């Protein structure tokens, strides 16, 4: 199994319509299912790696 992970932030990468086009493009290009997962980080919490 091969998994490809991408970051998509609407602020920088565009609208939901653009996200749809990216997902369709990935499905077409790679012929694999696409799973969309959304996580949110609390902006009030400082995270240090």
UniProtKB/TrEMBL annotation:
Pfam families: Glyco_hydro_53
Origin: domain of life: Bacteria
Protein name: Uncharacterized protein
Keyword field: Glycosidase, Hydrolase
Organism for this UniProt entry: Streptomyces synnematoformans
